[in-house]
Amino acid sequence: MSIESQSYGYTATGLLVKPSWRLIPQIDRDPNLVAGVQGTRGRLLLWCTVVLLTVLFWRIGVDFSAAALAVACAYVGRHRRMLILLATVLLLYRSGFLIDRPFLERMAVTEGVADRIHQPLLEAVTLVVVLALFAGLLVLQGSASTALRRPTLSLLVAFLALLVLTQAPVMTGMPRVLLWSFLMTSQPYLWFLAYGLADAGKNRSPVWQRLSVFHPFWGSSLTPFGKGLAYLERFEAKTPEELAVTQLKGVKLAAWTLLLAIVKICLGELVHGHLQLPMFDDNLLQYLAGHPLPRLVGWASLVSFFVEDLLGMAVFGGVIIATARLAGFRLLRNTWRPLESTTLADFWNRYYFYYKELLVDHFFYPTFIRCFRGHRRLRMFFATFMAACVGNLLFHFIRDIHFVGDMGLWRAVVGEQSHAFYTFVLAVSVGLSQMRRAPPPASRGWLRRRLLPCLWVSTFFCLIHVFDAPLDREHTLLQRGEFLFYLLGVTT
Predict the structure, then answer these.
(1) Residue 101: helix, strand or coil by DSSP?
(2) Is 289 in the same domain as 407?
């Protein structure tokens, strides 16, 4: 399940394909450009190009400011690790270290201790405690082979146990606020720590270097883009020529991402501005209020929601990967031609690559190694189910733990019902898709071998988007199911 060889222009025989005309030129394959970027004048021109792209992104509301820092990191040689740390700390400081301060302030008011807490001081102390704990765990994992034999499982059990503890009747007032402060401070870095613990036995780099890529400055969500330090070192440019090619790939990807961002804006203006097509959520609310819009409008809003989601994911990941490449890390693209997928498993791989990798690394492989070793198909299916359903649900539940504080544990869990159904259908479908290894015979022709499978896969993911609402705790699975039945013409 890798896209490592998807865009490098080689045929099955290993021969380089002569590049055809492209909207974005293949600048990373031009020997003159590759040689020029290695010189002082070429580097200055590259930096000016990055500044221009940053301004163009800013004009359409997309932040590409970390790209300038990335170029600086690429040219400092052996000091690159230290500059990455400084750039990461700088951008994390600018974003409040990703701590949900409004939630913690509401919690302090609810518990009646707001007048006894200095919120910035509490955040600073908690952050120091969390960093010290993370550093200690990384040192412990790297020095003793018996420590944390299953790091991801141990980490998740400990985190969820503390989350349940916040609901205990004895945890009232200051103890509850302190515990929530610890959870909300550590939550944005939880999966980075999981990768760090998994890499501790393989990577002997100092702890500060491993901590420097916990939410690296080039960007990430709760999903680490670039995994841990061991993975990043595999893709780090080692020679001036590799660095030049990697940075040119970054410029090319940034230009392509800029184009996609403009297309997304224009599409939104055309569909929702000129054609006055309602947003999908507004369409759902109209139906639930007893005033359903025509089915054609419902289908149009669902399809536009699906397409805009694909474009949004491509832009989001494109900016991050382009910045990482400018810093000298030739990371794989996050979203790569998902509409060309002919199987459900292939779409899942192409749509959000690094999230898929997280689920595979921390749920699929551990399950695949340990369970049903004597049953090959059942082993593959069960491991896929643990990743796409159980891991998927756990990831989003941890991401949205503020719902537990706002609604209580039981209501937050029940509110996941629609998303739980989505992950169940996704896991079963992807699991069955992976069992079908034989490609369609070439005798079927392009229509039956390529176009129809692509349309079927896109239609499937478009339809289950109706249930993919992890942030919606108000509308039930039944309500979303009724809306889908209405669109399909099953109900009136």
Answers:
(1) helix
(2) no
366 and 486 belong to one structural domain:
yes
271 assigned to some structural domain: yes
Of 211, 234, 257, the last residue of a domain is: 234
Buried b or exposed e, range 28-65, using 16+ CB within 10 angstroms: bbeeebbebbeeeebbeebbebbeebbebbeeeebebe
Would you tell me how many other CB atoms lie within 10 Å of the CB of residue 353? Answer: 25
Residue owning tokens 């491991």? 383
- In tens, the pLDDT along 113-168 reads 999 989 999 999 999 999 999 999 998 886 655 557 788 999 999 999 999 999 99
381-411 tens-digit pLDDT: 999 999 999 999 999 999 999 999 999 999 9
Separation CA 330–CA 250 (nearest Å) = 8
Q: Do residues 38 and 98 both lie within one domain?
A: no
* DSSP-assigned letters across all residues of 126-150: HHHHHHHHHHHHHHHHHH-TTTTSS
3-state secondary structure of 329: strand
Based on the domain organization, do 225 and 261 belong to the same domain?
no
Do 112 and 251 sit in the same domain of this protein?
no
Question: How far is residue 108 from each of residues 114, 166, 173, measured CA to CA in Å?
Answer: 5, 13, 8
| HSE toward the beta carbon, residue 386, CA cutoff 13 A | 19
Residue 222: DSSP 8-state: S
140, 197: one domain: yes
Q: So what's the pLDDT on residue 434?
A: 81
Domain limit, last residue, from 234, 264, 299: 234
Q: CA–CA separation, 19 vs 454, rounded Å? A: 25
The CA–CA distances, whole Å, from 442 to 6, 445, 448 equal 20, 6, 9
Do 251 and 345 lie in one domain? The reply is no
Beta bridge partners of 10: 16
CA distance 443 to 372: 37
| Number of other residues whose CB lies within 10 A of the CB of residue 285 | 15
- H/E segment holding residue 411: helix 409-414
| Torsional sign, CA 305, 311, 314, 320 | negative
Element (H, E) at 164: helix 151-165
417-435 and 392-399 are packed helices; what angle lies between their axes, rounded to 10 degrees? 150
Q: Is pLDDT of 492 > 90?
A: no
Query: What tokens does 20 get?
Result: 């055809």
Mean pLDDT of 100-115: 93
pLDDT in tens, 18-44: 445 678 888 889 899 999 999 999 999
Structure confidence by residue, pLDDT tens digits, 348-367: 889 999 999 999 999 999 99
Mean pLDDT, the chain, integer: 89
